[in-house]
Write the structure tokens for this entry.
Amino acid sequence: MDVFWIILILLAVVMFFVIGTYNSLVQLRNRVRNSWSQIDVQLKRRYDLIPNLVEVVKDYMEYEQETLQRVIEARNQAIDASGVQEQGAAENMLTGALRQLFALVENYPDLKANQNVLSLQEELTSTENKISFSRQHYNDMVMTFNTRTEQFPANVIAGMFNFGREDFFEIGETEREVPKVDLR
């Protein structure tokens, strides 16, 4: 009879371990999803600001319609992107297009002094900062989740219940480039 109780206790310990590990993996996965939702909120805000900016600058920038078109196309691709990898690539294209637009704005003194443009630039900069912070938080959550799903013995439970790796939201080459400053 003692063997029966020992086996029963061991089974209960294993069962509690599996349940505890499963629940912690679910919690981490939900934190990753919540972190992605926070990025999504900031991206939506960014997408909403871009048409306003384009509308304000288009009258001033008659000869720069190609740049404005690239910004709109990049925005539309970013809106249509799905998945972390595709979203990251689309966001990098949009960031590059916006940088080009802001560089051109510098060539138009009237536009540079326009209060609407200044306000929209400030809002976009603020939103970019929030996206950056949200991306950092998301990547921290992904790292925690991926580490947990890869460490023994949690990796056994993760494999049994199909907890796969999550993708990081990585920056592209355009964001890695150091801006060139010419003070001449």
Summary: Residues 21-166 form a domain with the de novo design (two linked rop proteins) fold (CATH 1.20.1440.20). The first helix runs from residue 2 to 58.
